[in-house]
Amino acid sequence: MIGGGKSYVSAPPAFSTDAKRILVCTGSVVSVFSTSTGLQILSLEAHAALVTAVIVVPGNKALSFCWTASLDGTVRYWDYAAAELMKTIDIKMPIYSMVIPALLLGKPDSKVMPADAFAYLSVENTQMQENAAGKALRGQIRKCNLTESRLAGVVLAETRIPEVISISPSGKFFGIQNKRKLHIWKTPAKDSKLPVLKITLHHTRNFTLLAFHPTKRLVAAGDTSGRILIWRGFGNCTFSDGDKLVNRGSMNDEPDRPGIRGDDDADSCTTWHWHPTGINLLRFSSDGAYLYSGGKEGVLVDWQLDTGKKKFLPRIGSPLIYLTDSLDPSLSAISCADNQIHLLKMPSMEITKSISGIKLPFSSPEVHEGMCRKFSFDDSAGLVALRTENYRIQFYSLFDDREISEVQVCERNHQPGDEVSVILTLVSLSGDGSMMSTVEVNLPEDGIGGLVCLKFWASESQNKKFNLSTIVYEPHRDAGISALAFHPTRQMVVSSSYGGDFKIWISSDEIQQRKDALQHSGWMCHAVGSYKKRPMTAAAFSADGSVLAVAAETVITLWDPDKNMLVAVLGEMHMPVVTLSFAGDHLLSISRGSKPQLSVWSMSKLSESWSYKLDIEDVTCAKDSSSFAVLALLPKSSNEPIFQGKDGLILVFNATVPVPLAMWSVRKAKGGGLAFLEGNSPSFQQQSMWDGKSPQALLAYINADHEYILFDPYDSDARELSLIRRKECIAIDETAQFGYASIYGELPQFEMNKDQNLLTPYAPSQRPWETIFSGSSHNLLPLPKLCLEFMESLLERRTTTVE
Q1: Domain range for residue 782?
Q2: How far apart are CA 292 and CA 335, in angstroms?
């Protein structure tokens, strides 16, 4: 089993002491990457929930120790070079943030833990009950004795939710932002019996984060309006006793003060304003001469502290989250909201290397949500193509868990947070992955304008660097495109339209194979088809490409793609068909709406074999077989204990049998996807985790957060709980947004007669002559066949009479 798709930016990373490695929190694992190559070297696996902090112990460059904290309530001590766990401290409360003052860590020269090591933790008190006003102070700031493995002292602060702790590079001060206040503590000496002293700074807007100067008594904070406030000489008068403040009441009970100057304990307060929205990133340079800031606009601003002058790192294209320094002053890292970590050469701020994770989900405007297809898979190479917010397509390797390439589909300036004006609605890949087709929609402004653009792309090599081949503006007049599908063996694409037609496109290479072909470059329209002017909502080619199925709302039409001839018409569904797919000699149709349905049609009998009343999110079919898998959404009213915390099912079928071969309950199914990956892929064969018995195919499941897992659905062990190792079945807390280990649950029993509303199988009649004249005229058989069926019906009746 292979898993991946974790977030690289859920917590700040940390550089090793020699700056040759960077430690990244990736779900419940800490992954170690090389700063020279950007590739993963090893991982630290022991936590059972999201890792929220990783802190490298300073000291000798030959040593490699770090502390980690997690929502599983534990703090762990590691030798990260050897991936060896050395100590575990159980706090028994989820840890959201952790800082360790450097002056309390010392500089270890051996594997012996330094004496009197302390950490300050931001934890959640899950036992706290809500008060009469419906509020509970669940967040706490606690002190932990790392040497003695216990919590020390009283609660330093209580907040509504756990807050992020910031600490000065010298370790003398640490603090949190709490609405319109900054609470700053002075770190005591190594004697833990001394009280922790605190001051409070105030503002008229809510703070977003704070940062401490490396050497001076100076603190900077950003607010929700984009302002940066700098207090110089804070706490020069006195620090108050933090314990007395806590005993007097919680921090939320402190009265708001009218301003930011006056009665705050600081010599002066300076305000800078450049960012149009809230500050996400704030950090001083290692020498203290500059202050770096960033926000949703994706620009890193470099402020000169003495003069206030600024310079900029050109727009990165994604909101900035963290800036991390290394002991090498020429190397820093910046974490972005699109799940990328960029390594920067300082002070020029040049990007030298990027560590790219899978892109996070792109939220389309509600009006176009039903038009957008989430994923497209290259089954042979084990790649998934994802639409991104900056008008690109990301190709991500599911086997290697890394980005392969990105394709800029639409050339335009994009600033994160801008109003969306262009949407990439569809992306489709050819069977061999060498061609791609995309659809983009320019949204109308004030009801005026709007443009649909169909593009064809070709790949030069296996690195998935696509070049634009052909652009077609308004391919279906002013109507939107509902589906794209490639021919399995030829350079042919079908596009269906809500405007009531479909078009077949062929490339110049396909045209030149004909003797009477004219010289042409790119792609051109080969044929146009329609059915009673109904909107065409889905399309698919059969496995051999001889049949084209196009859904005309609630009716399925079958065409000869070469002759553009209507062959047959199937069914009459209650709701429009949104997806068509071929599984061997069977056709699958998915309808959505108030009466969703999965139907399986026999192509030999041109009739419905069986169906389910299920809300299907995605479907995938295995090549050269009748197997297929669906991702079904569970009803919100489901009270089955086995489905608690899960919203979807993966069911594997053989199209000839209505009983599923296997079933798994999953989380975050809404917005997820499925795909069968071929077992003859080189990347697939290189995997060594199959113990010498490589499966013929893998089933890939990607959930709504773009976490994914690959497994063998045909393995007998895959139908039992033993497929998933015990630690991977632990249900991660809902606050943990990442970690593929939580998506699988137990295998429920599938009972055919348990819920007749859920399962409604349908079998074709064994006496076809009784129904040959029912339905649409397009369903009628040829005249010789009709005569034969009619004569058989007479003989049947006569035989019955004799008996």
Answers
A1: 768-802
A2: 13
